[in-house]
Task: structure prediction
Amino acid sequence: MLVTKRTKVVTGFNCNARCRFCYYGNRIKESNRPKKAIINDLKFARRHGIEDIDFSGGEPTTHPDLCELIASAKKIGFKNICIITNGLKLKEEYYRSLSDAGLNETLFSIQGGQEDTHDSSIGVKGAFLVIFHAIEIAKKISIKIRTNTVVHKYNYLELEQLIKQIAPFEPTQVNFITINDWHYAKNNATQLMCKYSEVSQYLKDACNMLKENNVKNINVRYIPFCMMLGYEQYVCNHGQVKYDPFEWLPHVRVRLETNINSLVYLAMLAYGLSFGKALFKAKKGDILDQVIVEAIRAYNYCKHKTCRDCRYDLICDGVEKSYANIFGLQELNTVPGEKIREPYYFRTHLHRI
Result:
């Protein structure tokens, strides 16, 4: 059973884009975090068995010390060192300097198959052409390419076009994230949400296209399993995160995200424990991660009463409460069969790189 050894380290929330679905849209003008604090996070992650790092923001390339931070990550001993980026600052000379410092992977945020859709999604005109130029540079200097796409009602019809654009670059991983309302995104998510029953076939077609193009690592995050019948291996709900090498180990990720206030972390653990009906079954090394999953599910998600009879009930999050408020729960299907208890049941095909 594969357990992820990756986490994210936040460089700060400062950003040079204005994404409509941003979790931290109320903080993007803040100063970036001090270099010393970020290096302390890197050391914490390494001490806790993390081998791969995603520098995240905001936008990591707005941090003036990013090269030094990448070099520090390499010195500390991380295997895969990645930035999650909109690509706006990745001109060749700067990108090469990051690569020379130790960057060997980039997770690009691409939000549409057409220029206008991507540009309007992130609030920067011309961004589509810029990010694909950055991807060309990544390919040229042998940096592994991954992609993120937040799937919403203005771009899901363009998934085929998007894949035609990115497949020639041989991405290591392609990640589709159904729109969710965490943090500040609550202000806009309800305007961007689309019904899972409408978008699911487009996601399935996208998975088929990527498989035909030999993309082995495909993720569809935060969608009920019953909406992806026949494609369950691509679904990554919160219970599956731990068993996906490209996702972040829950208890390390949350500890780093809440390190400004340890009480937040402790409160989350307490909340998760209060809803952790299945915790007594968890193995010793799984307890913290399971508590975090239970807390997220209890706070953000809900299910139809018939879901308790579904074979996927124990490994599926259901839908976000805000989604249920807009669309209801009637589209959820009860899939018959023996209940699946292991969240990694469909994750055995994945491998670390």
About this structure: Strands lie at 6-10, 52-56, 80-85, 105-109, 144-151, 173-178, 217-221, 235-236, 301-302, 319-320.
